[in-house]
Amino acid sequence: MNDENIQKPVRDILIVDDSFDVRAMLKEVLRMQKITNVDEARDEDTAIEKLYRFNYKLIFLDIELESGNGITVLKRIKENIPRTKVIMVSGFNTPDNVRKAIINGADGFIAKPFTPAKILSILDDLALAS
Amino acid sequence: MNPIHPTNPAETSKRDLNAYFEALQLTRATPIVRMFLALGITIAIVSIFHDLILIKKYIDSVIVVRVIMASILGALLYFFWTPIKALRLSLNTVVLMSFVCVSVSFTVIYAVLSEMHYIITVKLSLCLFALVIIQMGVRIVVYGSAIITLVPTALFFFTDTKSTTIFSIFLFHTMWSGCAILAAHLLQEHNKRMFFFERQLYEINRMAVKAQEDESKASQEKSRFVANMSHEIRTPLTAIMGYSESLINDHNSYKEIKNALSVIHRNSQHLLSITNDVLDLSKVEAGKLQINPEPSSLFSVIDEIESLLQKQAEDNHVELIIKYNYPLPLDVLFDPLRLRQVLFNICSNAIKFSKGGKVQLEVSANDNMKILIFRTIDNGIGMDQQTVRNLFRPFAQGDISTTRRYGGTGLGLYIAFQLAKRMEGDIKVISEPGSGSEFSLILPLKESLDTIWVEDKPVQVKSQSSYEQTVNSLSGTVLLAEDQQDNQHLITTLLTRLGLKVTAVENGELALQKALSEHYDVILMDMQMPVMDGFEATQLMIQSGVKSPIIALSANVMKQDIEKYIKIGCKESLSKPIDRKELYQCLKQYLKSPEEKTEEPIDFYNTDAIKKLSRDYLIRLEKDYNELNDAIEKIEWSALSKPAHRIKGAAGNFNYDGVSAAAADIEIAVKDCQRAVQYALKQIESDLLSEQENKQA
């Protein structure tokens, strides 16, 4: 993902989360909004690899990954492809965590467990909903 | 010595001061002049006896002169002292005349005793010295010198032929006069300087005394105001506390309860208006009273005043009449809030003081349609001129007994007057005791671009909706962050009655967590809360992409506070205590009514796909659960928190809220346990260390 200007295939959304269920749930909500162009990654390495191959409009990024840390991924994304929107997802929704995400350039923050309506309102704001 | 001071020293100019100094000089010299006159007479009389006994040779020629001199001096003394004003001589005249008298008589006497010319020159010169001692100023000394020099010279010229003697006398007197004039001049300058210092000291002293008086007067007024305020606040509080206590303790009928509640409500509103008055007063005193003119309807303001005052008028058995003198403009540029406040104060004042009478509010446009006049005429108790003058001063009411009888803080009219002045207008009062008062609020009429003049009152659509109509009139979800439990409960009730789904939390951090995990149509945020205040929570919400409109709730209603809230991203600010109409009007902008809501929200948890996912998840949940159990058996903290965290996130997403909450509890418990164990371990460690050290020692 070193160069933002390199022509890469554009996909809608990347979900980075170590929990299969969260990924499945998010994907289902997105599918209902007719967004099927969705990729998944369960750890930092896979996420980086995906980002090398594709350009995404929006990334849902978990902070507590089993291997790796969402904040370091966020930093790398914002350094290299700052135009990509990143929504942080976290089960530790302490103000400090929120602040850390915002300082590092996150475009939004969702606390786990979230409701589908919350996801919808985020998609609405980014004009990605159907 | 009694210093005399002009009646108004502040206005005395420099020239006046000089004149005043001369007058003062004369006044101070007066007793000394009297003394010298008396001394002169005594010397003359003593000399007569001296002559009679010792120098009998010249007695015939000398004694006559001495008697004449003594009697002239005596006459001068009398005319100087006489109680008959017309005969009284001025000090200057007395002094000069006595000089002439003394020099003539001395010269004559010593011409007779011709051998002793030089003695007389010394004696006369001593008289000049007396003038300097008396300190009557340079002018008198100059005149005195002239007399003392010229009179003997002239007399000798006519009587004596020894010209060298005349010349030497003349020379001696001239030199002596010069010295005397110089000394008098120095003395006078010195006196003048002392005098100015004295004046300054007097001025400073006078100002200090005046400042002290002012201060004590102001503090008296303030303490009277505080006493009034305390009385004013206690009165409604007594009703509120009494009625609420009876509601808590006694068994009341429905009607009694309703009555008690309405009394409590009315008194609370009264308390609120007092608080607002005090706030306005502080703004007036700080010069921060804001006027925000906008095109507004004259008639709607008057209508509001009428409806606001209706109840008070009924209670006081006052007939309230509104009279329009057409033509009147429909829309004018003014601040409706402030105009309402001023008119309300004036009219409510009129109603207050005319029990059982009639109050008329007359609205007219005058002076080529350039000014608006709101005239309130009542037939109440009226006021005398002194009261009218004191009317627009803060803290002042007619007198204390008026306050006792009619209530009020004495702030209303003062604030009204200040507001009128800020609106470039004025309030005029005509009143007489016993025959009622007439208050006229005169405002400049500023037409907006499309002002229409009407000859009749327009039919108005009543915008105010009764509270009953608002029940279930809105739909949506609201997050309420409010730490004070009673308030939280009250607002939740109000919102629920409006038909809204409310989630209430008690601090900013919880509000943030809620807002980040769920979507709300509106967020109501108290600004002062523990743990994390509304200010910070709002900032974090906005930064983390929460797009729901956030409405600030705050007891701070100062303009700069509200501006601060808007600046960080609040859409609006509502002041506490919450007015339900205001709350409704505010929420209406952001929420839809149930009829408007066309699209049904999709129930995600009922779709087949999610159901299947949910079923699949149960299998993994079981796995996680087993993992948890294993970890508990092995007492592995890190192994416990991982599946717990996983369950918290995933189970919640599939709407297993209970499971999610329990997992969250485990997560917290694990953390707490870890912390407790670590703490205990550290304790053991330090104890061990100290034990070992002891042994070594």
Summary?
Chain A is of the alpha/beta class and 130 residues long. Chain A has helices at 20-32, 44-53, 70-80, 95-103, 116-125, and strands at residues 10-16, 38-41, 55-62, 85-90, 108-111. Chain A has one domain (10-125): Rossmann fold (3-Layer(aba) Sandwich).
Structure description:
The complex is a heterodimer of chains A (130) and B (697). With 130 residues, chain A is of the alpha/beta class. Chain A has helices at 20-32, 44-53, 70-80, 95-103, 116-125; strands spanning 10-16, 38-41, 55-62, 85-90, 108-111. A five-stranded parallel beta sheet of chain A has the order 2-1-3-4-5, with helices on both faces. The longest helix of chain A has 13 residues, at 20-32. Chain B has 21 helices and 14 strands. Chain B has a five-stranded mixed beta sheet with strand order 2-5-6-8-7, with helices on one face. A five-stranded parallel beta sheet of chain B has the order 11-10-12-13-14, with helices on both faces. In chain B, strand 12 (522-526), helix 16 and strand 13 form a beta-alpha-beta unit. Chain B is elongated, with a radius of gyration of 49 Å. Chain B starts with 13 loop residues before the first helix and ends with a helix. Chain A binds chain B through residues 19-22, 24-25, 28-29, 31-32, 64, 87-88, 91, 93-95, 98-99, 101-102, 106-118, 120-122, 124-125, and chain B through 509, 512-513, 516-519, 532, 536, 540, 543-545, 547-548, 601-602, 604, 607, 609-610, 613, 616-617, 620, 645-646, 648-654, 657, 660.
Low-confidence stretches of chain B: 1-11, 461-467
Overall outline of chain B: elongated
Q: Which whole number gives the mean pLDDT of chain B? A: 80
Helix proportion of residues of chain A, in percent? 40-55%
Largest interface: A-B, 39 and 36 residues
Side by side, the strands of the main sheet of chain A go: 2-1-3-4-5
Compile the SSE list and pairings.
The complex is a heterodimer of chains A (130) and B (697).
Chain A: E1 10-16, H1 20-32, E2 38-41, H2 44-53, E3 55-62, H3 70-80, E4 85-90, H4 95-103, E5 108-111, H5 116-125
Parallel strand pairs in A: 1-2, 1-3, 3-4, 4-5
Chain B: H1 14-53, H2 59-81, H3 91-112, H4 117-134, H5 138-159, H6 163-249, H7 254-285, E1 294-297, H8 298-315, E2 319-325, E3 328-329, E4 331-334, H9 336-352, E5 358-366, E6 371-378, H10 385-390, H11 400-406, H12 412-422, E7 426-431, E8 437-444, E9 453-454, H13 467-470, E10 477-481, H14 485-497, E11 501-505, H15 508-517, E12 522-526, H16 534-543, E13 550-554, H17 559-568, E14 572-575, H18 580-588, H19 608-634, H20 637-653, H21 657-696
Parallel strand pairs in B: 2-5, 10-11, 10-12, 12-13, 13-14
Antiparallel strand pairs in B: 1-4, 3-9, 5-6, 6-8, 7-8
Helix pairs in contact in B: 1-2, 1-3, 2-3, 3-4, 3-5, 4-5, 4-6, 5-6, 6-7, 7-12, 8-9, 9-12, 15-16, 19-20, 20-21
